[in-house]
Amino acid sequence: MRFVTHRPIDVLGLLTTVTGPELGGTVLFVGSVRRGDGDGPVEAIEYSAYEDMLEAEFEKIMAEAAAQWPGSRVAGMHRVGRVPVGESSVAIAAAAPHRADAFAACRYAIEEAKKRLPVWKKEIFEDGSAAWREGDQPEAGIKPKIA
Amino acid sequence: MHLPKALSSATTVTVTVRAFARYAEILGLEETKLELAEPATVGDAVKLLRKSVPNGHLLPERPLVAVNLEHVLVEAPLRNGDELALLPPLAGG
Fold first, then answer.
1. pLDDT tens per residue, range A24-59
2. Element (H, E) at A107
3. Shortest CB distance from A90 goes to which of B85, B88, B92?
4. Rounded Cα gap, residues A57 and A49, in angstroms
5. A66-110 per-position pLDDT tens digit
6. In the sheet where B70-72 sits, what is the strand order?
7. In terms of CB atoms within 10 Å, which end of chain B has fewer, N or C?
8. Is residue B10 scored above 80 in pLDDT?
9. A22 to chain B nearest CA, in Å?
10. CATH number at residue B59
11. Domain boundaries, chain A
């Protein structure tokens, strides 16, 4: 399944890709575009991405989660393009035999995704203006993960 | 757009440079080829871009960078045919 989508995210569809008869706990995280409290009311966010790297990096994150929480399953989707306020931009589903591991794997995947995925956002304000909204630049850069 | 060679001597490596989001706007390009003297690092490529592309000086000296789809530090070596990506501070989610 591809991680990047240009269409609205089917969160329930995503959930069904990780559930299974041996997995007693499933956690779903959904991140949505909010009106914001910065430079004015936001109407939408225009997401752009380095799509090939996004796929490769999320594959790594899923493999890391599977190694840390054996028996767990993680899947995710990130929407790119224009995402209106209230709609989902990212979703991560994690299932594990027990709930503690499902929560931990889901938390790991979304936190690593925020730190490592090559995605950028431009806020589109209600008055039609737009501005890049960037994260903090890690001083040392992002170290490659040794597989 | 082809940029001038860093040096005309010795062996060189040619890499594809891709710029994203705000960096693509600053540099006015999404993709270019760069020829560098061997041995070359990501930092050498950034230095050359900062010097030779209009508005290149607006790039940080140590931007986030990836080579062949992997995060690397600017000290990483570049080999012929590599794809170097210049990544503005990430903002996924």
1. 999 999 999 999 866 779 999 999 999 999 999 999
2. helix A99-116
3. B92
4. 12
5. 999 999 999 999 999 999 999 999 999 999 999 999 999 999 999
6. B31-37, B12-19, B83-87, B64-67, B70-72
7. N
8. no
9. 30
10. 3.10.20.30
11. 4-127
Instruction: Please calculate the CA angle B19-B24-B27 and round it to the nearest 5 degrees.
Output: 105
CA distance A110 to chain B (A): 8
Structure tokens at A127: 């008055």
Q: In this prediction, does ipTM exceed 0.95? A: no
**Which tens digit of pLDDT belongs to each residue from A20-32?**
999 999 999 999 9
What are the φ/ψ torsions at residue A13 (nearest 5 degrees)? -60, -40
Concatenated DSSP letters of A11-54: HHHHHHHH--TT--EEEEEEEE----SSSS-EEEEEEEE-HHHH
Residue of B nearest to A139 (CA): B62
- How many other CB atoms are found less than 10 A from the CB of residue A16? 12
Q: What CATH topology corresponds to A4-127?
A: Aldehyde Oxidoreductase; domain 3 (3.90.1170)
Residue labelled with tokens 């995060």: B71
What whole-number distance in Å separates Cα of residue B13 and Cα of residue A88?
43
Q: How confident is residue B2, by pLDDT bands cut at 50, 70 and 90?
A: low
Query: Residue A142 has what pLDDT?
Result: 84
